[in-house]
Amino acid sequence: MLIASQLEPTYARTVYPCFDEPAMKATFNIRIVHDPSYVALSNMPAIDVSEMKDENGSLWTVTTFNTSLKMSTYLTAFVICDFDYVTRTERGNEIRIWARKEAVKNGYVDYALNITGPIFSFLEDLLNVSYPLPKTDLVALPDFGAGAMENWGLMTFQESSLMYQPSDKFTSRKAMIAIIVSHELGHQWFGNLVTMNWWNDLWLNEGLASYFEYLGAIFVEPKLSLDKIFYDHVVQPVLREDNERGVRSLSETEEKIKGSFSLISLFDSITYSKSYLKEFSFSNANQDDLWTHIQMVVDAQNEVQLPASVKQIMDSWTCQNGFPVLTLNLTTGTISQEQFLNKKNENSPDSYNNTWIIPISWMRSGSSQPLMWLDKSSKVFPEMQVSESEYDWVLLNVNLNGYYRVNYDQLNLKRLARLLENDPKAIPAVSRFQLIDDVFALTQFGYIQIETALELTKYLAREDELFIWNMVLLNLVPENLESTLKNYEVYPLLKKYLLKRMLPIYHYYAGFIRQNVDALEDDYFAQVYLEKLFATACWLGLQDCLNLSSELYAKWMDNPEYKIPFLIRRTVCCYGVAMGSDKEWNFAWEMYNRTDSTKEDKDILLSAMSCAKESWLLYRYLQYGLSDTLFSSNYTSIIILYAVTKDIGYRMAWEFVTENWPLLSERYGKQPALDCLYFCGFLAYSSTSMFKP
Q1: Is residue 226, in this structure, part of any structural domain at all?
Q2: 656-667 burial by CB neighbour count: b if 16+ within 10 A, else e?
Q3: What CATH number is given to the structural domain containing 359?
Q4: Beta-carbon contacts of residue 158 (< 8 Å; ≥ 6 apart)
Q5: Alpha-carbon distance 510 to 506, whole Å?
Q6: Which helix H or strand E contains 407, and what residues bound it?
C-alpha cells in the first residue's frame, strides 16, 4: 500500500480547507496519523513520532512535522509508504532518496543520490541564494501520473525518472534522470521560493526550470552534448506545436508551457535571477517583475544595447500567440516577418498583424556577425546584401538562438545547398538541424515546394550527426513505416533517394553493433535514435540490415541468454521474424511467454510477432489475440493494431475484425469496438506521406 499526494494545480482544497491560490502563501503545521509499519513524509522534517490508540484499541503512529516555510498550498505534500532510503548530506541539507526496498537494495537509486547534492550546490552557487530547507526527500513512486513534482522538500517522481540500474552501461537513461532531477531542483527556487502570482504566468515556473534543468544536467554529465539535446527535445518540438491558430500565447497559458527560454538566453547573463530571487523570496511575482529586474541589469552596463525596453521586447513574445517566420531577400538585404501559419489551411487568415522584436544572430560566409534587431514588419539590412560570388552566403538564427523560422530566397538556398555538399561542417550542427527542419516545415505549410527542401538534403551522405538524420527521417519517412508501403508511388522514390545517402552512417554504426556495441555507451543520440535509422534501412530493403537482423536473431535462438543490443532490439526482433519462417515466429512466442520477460521485452515481442510475412502466421496470431487463455482481453486490440499497420496485415485485420464483430463488441462494448473497426478500415484504405499527390 502507498499514499502519495499531487496537489498542483488545485487539489489542495480536496485535502484540507484552504484558500487554494498560489499567491495566498502561508506556513503549514502538518501531522499524520498512520499505520505503525509505515513511514510518513512531508515537506519538513519530522519533529515528533508518538503512538495513539483509536476507539477499537488499535495502535497508530502519529508523526508531527516542523512548521513549514511560507509557501503556496499546491506545494504541500505527504507520502505514506514502507519504502527504504539512501542518504547523504550536502552543505547541511539532508538528502534522502526513497524507493521500494528491493530497488534500494539493488542500488537503483544510487545514481540519483550521487547527482542530487552536486546539482543543489551548483544551483546555489549559480543563483547566489541558499536553499532554505534542512532536508530534501526524493521519492520514486511505482505509479505516478505527473511524471515528477517539485513539492518543497518532498519531490515525487515516477520510478523510471529516478531509477538507474548499475548494469545499464548506456548514458541515455542517466541523461534523462539528470535532466528531470535538475528540473525539479530548479523549481526549488523558481516556483517554490518565488512563485508566479497566478497560473496565467505558469511559464515563470516552468520556463525557468526547463532552462536550468539543462545547466544542471550538463554540470553532472559533461560528456553529453546537451546543447543539441535541448534543441532536439525542447525547442524543435515546440516550434512544431506552436504554429496552429488556436495555440494561446505564453502568458495566458494554464498548462505547462516549455521552451520559451530560447528568448531569455539572448541576454547571456543570469545575474537578473539573483536580484529577482532575493526580492521575491517567499512571495509571488508576475512576468513584469522579471522584466523589471532584467532591465536593471541592462541599464547598469554598456555592452548590450537593446532597440526597446525589456518589457516591450518580451511582451512581443509572451503576450502574442505563435511565432514569426523571417523571409530574406539577399539581393536587396530585406528581411520581413509574419506569423508562421499554415497557408494550406483554408480557414487560415492571410496574416495577423502580429510583429515581434526579433534578435538576429547571423553569419556570413563562415564568420560571425554582430547581433541585429528586426523591430518592425520589414527592414533593409545593407550588410546582408550578397555579392555575385557563389561562395558568399548568409545564415540567420545561428545555433537556433532565436524562436523563429527562416525562409531564404532561392539564391541563398542554392549557395547553402552547395556549401553543405562541399563542406557540411562549415555550418554548425545545430544550424544544419534547424536549416533542414525549417525547409520541411515551410514545405508542409505551403511556403515552398518539396523540391526546394530536398535540395538541402542532397548532401546527407556526408552527414554524421544522428540527431540531424533523425529529423530528416521524421520528415521524409512516416512514423508508421509499414503502412506507407501501400503508397506504392512513394516507396521506390524514397528507396532510391534515401538509401545511398544513408549507407555511410548506417555502416559506421553497423560496425559497432557487430564488433563493439559497448563503445556507444556515451553516444546519447545512438541510444535514442539508432533504432529509427536501422528500422528505416531494413524497411527500405538494405540487404546488410536484413542480414544483420537475421544473424543477431539466430544468435539469440541458439542461446536464449544472449542479449540482442538494446539500441536496435525492436528492429532485430521484427526483421528476424519477418525474414524467417514459423520457427522464428514460434521462438518469439516462446520468449514472450517466459516468466522472466520484462514488460519492455513483452512489448517488443508483441510487436515483432506481427512482422511475419506469411499470411497464415499473422492470421494465427490474430486468432491467439482472441483467446482469453493466451492473453488478457486488453491485448486483443493491441495485436489487431500491430497487424493493421503491416503491409500484408491491414486487409487481413479488417476482415478479422468484421468476422469477429459479435465477440469483439460483446467483450469491449460497442463504442471501443467501433473505434477499432473504424481505425482498421481507415488504415486499410489510406496512407500518409509528404509526397502524397
Answers
A1: yes
A2: bbeebeeebbeb
A3: 2.60.40.1910
A4: 140, 141, 143, 144, 147, 148
A5: 6
A6: strand 405-407
Main-chain dihedrals φ then ψ at residue 225, nearest 5 degrees = -90, 75
153, three cell numbers: 522538500
Catalytic residue at 184?
yes
Sheet of 59-65, strand order: 31-34, 59-65, 46-53
Distance CA 111, CA 106 (A): 12
Which residue range is the domain that position 369 belongs to? Answer: 324-346+353-461
The three-state DSSP-derived secondary structure of 236-252 is HHHHHHCCCCCCCCHHH
Q: Which of 8, 150, 184, 584 is catalytic?
A: 184
Residues 222 and 339 in one domain: no
Cα pseudo-dihedral 385, 391, 396, 400, rounded to 10: 180
- Tell me which of 402, 426, 461 is where a domain ends: 461
Tell whether omega for the bond before 9 is within 30 degrees of 0, i.e. cis: yes
For 190, list phi and psi in degrees, rounded to 5: -95, 95
pLDDT in tens, 210-233: 888 989 999 999 888 877 888 888
Binding site, residues? 183, 187, 206
β partners of residue 378: 336
- Could you give the number of structural domains in the chain? 2
Does the residue 36 lie in any domain?
Answer: no
The average pLDDT across 237-249 equals 70
**Dist CA 64 CA 40 (whole Å):** 9
3-state DSSP assignment of residue 139: strand
Nearest to 43 by CA among 176, 133, 104, 139: 133
pLDDT confidence of residue 376: 95
CA separation for the pair 232, 474 (Å, rounded): 12
Q: What is the pLDDT of residue 546?
A: 97
Residue 469 lies in a domain: no
pLDDT digits (tens, 9 = 90+) for 129-153: 999 999 999 999 998 888 899 999 9
- Measure the CA–CA gap between 456 and 416, rounded to whole angstroms: 8
Annotated binding site for Zn(2+): 183, 187, 206
Cell readout for 243 is 504554429
